[in-house]
Amino acid sequence: MMSNEGSLSPESVLSQLKSNNITHVVWLPDSETNWLYLLMKNEPSIELVPVSREGQAFSVAAGLATGGKKPVILIQNTGLLESGDSLRGWGIGLKTPVVMMIGYRGWTRHGKNAFHDVAKFTEPFLIAMGINYYLVENDGDIDRITYAFEEADENKKPVAVLVGDEYSSWN
Amino acid sequence: MIDTLEMLKIFKNHRGNSVVIPGRGGKHWVTLTDNQSRDVPLGDPAMGGHASYAFGLALAIPNETVVLFDSEGDLLMNTGALATIADLAPKNFYHFLLDNECYATTGGQPVPNAQKVDYTGLAKSMGYGSTYFIDNLEDFDQKIAEILNQEGPVFIHLKINPEIENVPINQRVRWQNRTWDQVLSDIKSELSVK
Q1: How large is the ipTM?
Q2: Which parts of A20-169 fold into alpha helices (H)?
Q3: Between chains, do A89 and B46 touch, taking CB under 8 Å as contact?
Q4: Which residues of chain A neighbour B56 with C-beta distances below 8 Å?
Q5: Potential cystine with A141: which of A43, A125, A136, B158 (Cβ 3.0-4.6 Å)?
């Protein structure tokens, strides 16, 4: 496994998904995840489920979980905002133990949301929905993904991982 | 136009061992079913998600037949779900659409372009290999065996009579006889899912 604490490598993320026995990745592409997509496409233990709007991801994940599978949702924070009612009903309401990995568009550790205004709404949205979240910026944070899976399973509810690495190593 | 209760009575004879997500047909189905543990009557966790939920369940249990009774108002909220379903094309998925041309539970207001949307054409163009349009009970009775005896995903557009509700929500009698927790616990137990 490639390890680089200065950036977040898609190999490290895929390794986390595999070690947490993920069966399906329900996803809508964003600018953070193309390299991860290429890796996942070649990973036989994971089935990719492409959706056309992020809210759809939560109901797909709920169905998969009902049937005994372990999905992860891979979307961008813009789409998270669109997903509010679906997250409420299909995620929180049905107690779906799913991790959503969310591209944190517009976020920088310096506090400047220079690229996109959606960053300033992201954490307040999660807090309002009662969703706990972990920030992952580089490979040094990678274990937080496992923490999120453990928390989702234990509490039977969605947990978020904010991927704060846009415009660097994932592209 | 088809009466939903009468249609479900016919379907019941063909249900076999399938997992049934009755969707907007739930209030009738719970009075008819003789295999409750394989039913997933969720009511409306969040409108727009029934097709995706049933699809996800079908993907998870490929050796079980999964039948959904969706509604046109629900599908219109997330029409793109049809493309996802057709893309992965679960062979065990049967997608019935109950089209009453209106939002019956909110008083019967028409859905957009209510009488003209060609849902069968929509499903076909999204990639469903097999589609049906049925607007009377006799045709449903005649075709239901053929529908369920072929590989999915199959899309069946049913024109149904609206059953409009105008009573305020807090005065309506709940048709659900199990909580979401009970429904999910029962189906997981039935499917031997932890």
Answers
A1: 0.97
A2: 34-41, 54-66, 77-82, 84-86, 119-128, 143-155
A3: yes
A4: 26, 49, 59-67, 71
A5: A136
